[in-house]
Amino acid sequence: MPAFDLPWEDLKRYRPDLQEPAGFDEFWHDTLKEAAQPEVLVSAHPVATGLRLTDTWDVTFRGFGGDPVRAWFSRPAGVREPLPAVVEYAGYGRGRGLPHERLTWVNAGYAHLLMDNRGQGDQYGNGGATPDPHSTAPGGPGPVVRGLLSPRDHHYRRLVTDAVRAVAAVRALPGVDGSRVAAVGNSQGGGLALAVAGLVPDLAALLVTAPFLCGIRRALDLTDASPYGEITAYLSVHRGAERAAYDTLAHLEGISFARRAHAPAHFGVGLRDTVCPPSGAYGAFNRYAELSGADPRKEIHAYPFNGHEGGDAVHVRRQLDWLKGVLESD
């Protein structure tokens, strides 16, 4: 697929206008307040994985509505001192899978929490273990169109709340330095990590690649690839529902979350990405922290000949080097 979004030189300067809902901040303040519970952790049980150099726990914490959300928590075996932590969010349609699947951050010396996606896990990967008991509002079968006609009913209101609560959960686990917690994600996971950065003011770092839900209205005009294509398909059947859908999606806009962020940030983007168009990532990067009063360290790496895979392992190496510099600097 050839490059299809704005030219790279234009992307570097791209600062899109937003149709931000007047009650955006109140909506998320009230949502998170409703989810607040004195004890975020429900349980943490050690599990046998066959790995000698990694210790892993099956964690359950309270997310949206107090619902139980599952996660894998891993640490380098035999390390006793408190470690900085990476909270990772999985991609669209994927669950937490199996505990030995994602070992990069543990091998780099971090505590690692991989959050399950409620109501997802059946499209690829190795499954999930967190149902979504609230998924009854009008909408299509895919997560992005569940409850599309109301921001209070939408699937991502619950999933973003879970993502914020995951940071509280990792801080409550033993052997974690709660002052050094990073949010990490790719695609849907990148959109969740970006939302967390906008909603958790004391996050220590953000690493996001190919973020979903950034520049949503433009993405709907540019691509029919899933997940955006699921929204297009829904609206092609439910003619006249656009206004309600656009209002809901505006409450989930990643660029709006980016504007409110404080943490140092590391972005990655493939310029031929037809799943999450690169203008969304650049819009979030260029408007990052503009409302928070912070002036965080930030950088973005573009891969002109890559699509949704971005820089792949090359980019992960850059992430490792950058995060070490942020979390381990004096």
Automatic annotation (TrEMBL):
Q: Which residues constitute the catalytic centre?
A: 187, 273, 308
* GO MF, any single term: carboxylic ester hydrolase activity
Example GO BP: polysaccharide metabolic process
The residues covered by the Acetyl xylan esterase domain are: 1-324
- Top-level lineage group: Bacteria
Give the matching SUPFAM superfamilies.
Answer: alpha/beta-Hydrolases
Q: Where does substrate bind?
A: 92
Q: Which residue ranges traverse the bilayer? A: none
Q: Which Pfam families match?
A: AXE1
Residue numbers spanned by region Disordered: 121-143
**What InterPro entries does the annotation carry?**
AB_hydrolase_fold, AXE1_dom, CE7
Its name, as the record gives it, is Acetyl xylan esterase
Which species does this protein come from? Answer: Streptomyces curacoi
Taxonomic lineage of this organism? Bacteria, Bacillati, Actinomycetota, Actinomycetes, Kitasatosporales
